[in-house]
Amino acid sequence: MEGTQITIVDHELSSETHNLYDVQIGSAAATIETLVTNSASMASSWISDTERIHRQNLRGLIVGLDVEWRPSFSRNIENPVATLQLCVARRCLVFQLIHADDSAPTSLADFLRNPDYRFVGVGVAADVEKLLLDYQLSVRNAVDLGDLAARVRDDRSLKSAGLKGLARLVLGMEIEKPKRITMGRWDNRWLTSDQVRYACVDAFVSFEIGKKLINGD
After folding, report:
1. Would 135 be classed as within a structural domain?
2. Residue 36 half-sphere exposure, CB side, CA atoms within 13 Å?
3. Residue 134 sits in which domain range?
4. CATH number where 140 lies
5. Where do runs of H (alpha helix) occur along 54-119?
6. Which residue intervals of 54-178 are DSSP H helices?
7. How many Å is the Cα radius of gyration of the chain?
């Protein structure tokens, strides 16, 4: 199966705190509006806009969640989370926690703790634990997509499936996860377009898998 085509358009905003990108996925060219920011107020605006857009369906809101950090090659050092990615439908936030003026704005803490929302991801328990350790951000209702797929598809082997495997099985989508990006400098002040695309796709695909498994869409 050929890899799903993914392109990115950089809006090149003249801002020190944020930038916008359009990430287009697949032949149908689903466009994900992606905000990259180190500003707590911009992250808060993204959250309030998301809740306003989905105000009719906030109970059970599905949110794709992922984090990235700079890898460490020392056993004694583990770098903190650099970016938190959240995706709902065609909107994605890449919040640069490591550079944020306020790493844990109240709106973000409240959003992550909302018991009505379901935060879906692969290996999400480890991400949630790291957010709590590094930034005292608590995620109330995290759902591991491997566990969910195993229950919905009645196949215990899916518990250990990665995002690539679940994307192929559930969405019929072939995504790439290049090591050079996975192992890259996620703590850089300015992320590359390749990093933004990677971060957005992981959160968006997590959202889409979660939506399909939970709602049967």
Report:
1. yes
2. 29
3. 6-215
4. 3.30.420.10
5. 106-113
6. 106-113, 124-135, 145-152, 163-166
7. 16
Tens of pLDDT, residue by residue over 50-81, are 999 999 989 999 999 999 999 987 878 889 99
| Separation CA 47–CA 163 (nearest Å) | 25
CB-based contact 93:111 (threshold 8 Å) = no
pLDDT in tens, 90-119: 999 999 999 998 777 899 999 999 999 999
Q: Which of 195, 176, 175 is nearest to 186 (CA)?
A: 195
> Would you say residue 160 lies in a domain?
yes
The count of structural domains within the chain is 1
- Whole-number mean pLDDT of the chain? 93
Q: Is position 1 within any domain?
A: no
Would residue 177 count as lying in a domain?
yes
What's the chain's length in residues?
217
Confidence of residue 27 (pLDDT cuts 50, 70, 90): low
pTM higher than 0.70 for the full model? yes
